[in-house]
Amino acid sequence: MDKYIEKILSARVYDVAIESPLEEAPALSRRLGNRIMLKREDMQSIFSFKLRGAYNRIWQLSRQQKLEGVTCSSAGNHAQGVALAAKKLGLKAMIVMPRTTPQIKVDAVKALGGRAILHGDAYDEAYAHAREIEEEHGYPFIHPYDHPDTIAGQGTVGMELCRQFGDDLHAVFVPVGGGGLITGIAAFMKYLRPETTIIGVEPEDAASMSVSLERGRRTRLKHVGIFADGVAVACPGKETFRLARKYVDEIVTVTTDEICAAIKDVFGDTRTLTEPAGALGVAGIKRYVEREGLTDANLIPVICGANINFDRLRHVAERAELGEHREVLFAATLPERPGAFRKFCNALGKRSVTEFNYRYADTDEAHVFVGVQTRGGEDERQAILDDLRGKGYEILDMTDNEMAKLHIRYLVGGHTNGLVPNERVLRFEFPERPGALQNFLDGMGRGWNISLFHYRNHGAAYGRVLAGMQVPEEDGKAFRKFLDDLGYFWEEESDNSAYQTFLR
């Protein structure tokens, strides 16, 4: 420990890093009944803590030997940290990235003066090529986490926490990938603030440190989930594992949905978006507080990064409600006859429907995919399902079904093979207010059968709905009056080529 305390105190990081702020999260604190302070490493110039360890490692090397350049393999934040450090020290940086790396990250490395070399389709191939560059050019390979100088650089986050927060600190929650950040923080804080609990947080599908600590040896995972790509590490480092066994108190694992909810939590208090790995600490706090029944404690999550691709936000928004336990998803079986849909919505009562997917497929039964908003908690979820079952509906809970959440909800439907005569398909904009759907169903009134219905609440002022209804030709005038009286924007899509090709 003494060696690491000395290394952290003398680490050279502030040539490129700032002392990141420690900010209270008032909304999250109120909701959890504890004081939550966010350590904002996402506010570094490369939007990640990685520049600390990369710079300290390269600076220490430059003191020991004459350097012309360095190399590394990375598809993420470490690549930017190495590129920035090399630029600051006047060195070449040859950074090998898989060909599958998003262009935004390749461009970020180039903007920092690094040479981005695209090689292979996976990290292992990029790593092997970087090692070849090390042999050929003599450029030292800069490991992303498994070196004492890198660990010491990351450990300056712990040094700052001790200086910034003087009150009793119950626990610090740190995202864990290879282990460089948590072991640097733990080594320093266990020396100066031994009463503070150091808790690592990993995704359930990328929990290499958790598994290794449980087994008492470094363990390589056969498969690593990549949603939180910043911590998607198959095996912890040798040195980081050794330190974690000494100084880390516990590892908490969280689901993808919980990570998405945590991203939303941070946004709610800061109006900034973290990357999935950056929100792990908040997700870990929420699970820990619920498990322990903890109140009135000081808790700090390290927000380790904000390098999120914009196109991932749709997935985050989709899954955040599930992560907060504020939505229940289920399949319901209804009789296939006019009015059954309206009766089912009446059975739901005043609850807000977030999603409804249905396509006619059988003359006897209709299978619908439904989302219902809740106030949060497993008890309410179960109460909704039990209530519907008690009213005679066959219900299948799909809230925790990954296949259903990722794929099935978008595949409900298909051709009707001529079984739906007189079908008219219309696109609506429903005002997002309680009763909008019920108003639509009550207004129909005449018993026109609904043959298709797709609705998803996206949090906007208006919900977009695609509906199919069987309207006999002689009812055309009455149907037009229904649409006019409804008052919602609508547009007929019966001749749309997409409908003709995939749904008719």
Question: What are the low-pLDDT stretches, counting only 5+ consecutive residues below 50?
Answer: none
Q: Estimate nothing, just give the exact number of structural domains.
A: 3
CATH fold annotation of the largest domain: Rossmann fold
Relative strand content: 15-25%
Count the DSSP helices: 19
The count of strands amounts to: 17
Major sheet attributes: 8 strands, antiparallel
Short description:
This protein has 504 residues and is α/β, with parallel strands linked by helices. The protein has 19 helices and 17 strands.
List the helices and strands and how they pair.
Elements: H1 2-9, E1 22-24, H2 26-32, E2 35-40, H3 50-64, E3 69-73, H4 77-89, E4 92-97, H5 103-111, E5 115-118, H6 123-137, H7 148-164, E6 171-175, H8 180-192, E7 197-203, H9 208-215, H10 238-247, E8 250-254, H11 256-270, H12 280-292, E9 298-303, H13 313-323, E10 327-335, H14 340-348, E11 353-359, E12 365-373, H15 378-390, E13 394-397, H16 402-411, E14 423-431, H17 436-444, E15 449-456, E16 462-470, H18 476-486, E17 489-492, H19 497-502
Parallel strand pairs: 2-9, 3-4, 4-5, 6-7, 6-9, 7-8
Antiparallel strand pairs: 1-2, 10-12, 10-13, 11-12, 11-15, 14-16, 14-17, 15-16
